[in-house]
Write a structure and sequence with these properties.
Number of domains: 1
Radius of gyration: 17 Å
CATH superfamily: Glutaredoxin
CATH class: Alpha Beta
Strand content: 5-15%
Structural class: alpha+beta
Largest sheet: 5 strands, mixed
CATH architecture: 3-Layer(aba) Sandwich
Length: about 200
């Protein structure tokens, strides 16, 4: 499945726009729409989501080609699926510990390749211990302000953007698209939307 999605990305991400993207068909307008200080793409995802796992290599490829002035941010979905809330906590704990780049792909692999679908707090602590963090440091991060504030912000964001599934993409705090709307053209759509005011 990953190879098929990556092939679709390769075939379509670099193509010149061959169609006029239609509001309501290929993307939606965020209501109320906001503004960003620079072109911005936000991915709302969950480590527990198989579609997010399949899309992740496509996103990594897109990041290599996106314009330098486009800011990219990942938001881990919290309050969307109770079984996945622990994964949002893991993502923001990794941020607090400065380990995001080191553990991002490994968390996906543990869940979707090795079949580790559920995690207790103790297992999360042990996981980060593999990356040199002691239990006291990990638990302090898990229970700290950064993680708590990010989880609250994520929950509010899912409500604001009326997120019904992941991965979803918010462009310039004004446009919403996902693979259900954009299909194989999701990234060309994102590339075009990010240039709009």
């Amino acid at each position: 499945m990953i190879k098929r999605l990556t092939l679709l990305f390769t075939l379509f991400a670099g193509s010149v726009m061959a169609a006029n993207w239609q509001e309501g068909t290929h993307f939606k307008i965020v209501n109320p729409a906001g503004k960003t200080s620079q072109p911005t793409v936000i991915e709302i995802f969950s480590y527990g989501c198989p579609h997010c796992y399949e899309a992740d290599p496509m996103i990594e490829e897109w990041l290599k080609t996106k314009p330098a002035n486009v800011k990219f941010e990942r938001v881990a979905a919290f309050g969307f699926n109770p079984a996945w809330d622990v994964f949002a906590k893991m993502f923001y704990t990794a941020q607090a510990l400065g380990l995001t780049d080191k553990v991002h792909h490994e968390i996906f692999a543990r869940i979707h390749v090795k079949g580790k679908k559920t995690w207790s707090d103790g297992e999360v602590v042990k996981f980060f211990g593999e990356f040199g963090k002691d239990e006291k440091t990990v638990r302090a991060a898990m229970d700290g302000f950064h993680v708590d504030s990010k989880l609250k912000a994520s929950k509010a964001m899912l409500t604001k953007y009326k997120v019904g599934g992941v991965p979803s993409f918010i462009v310039n705090d004004k446009y919403f698209t996902d693979f259900r709307l954009g299909g194989k053209d999701a990234f060309p759509i994102i590339n075009d939307l990010v240039t709009k005011k």
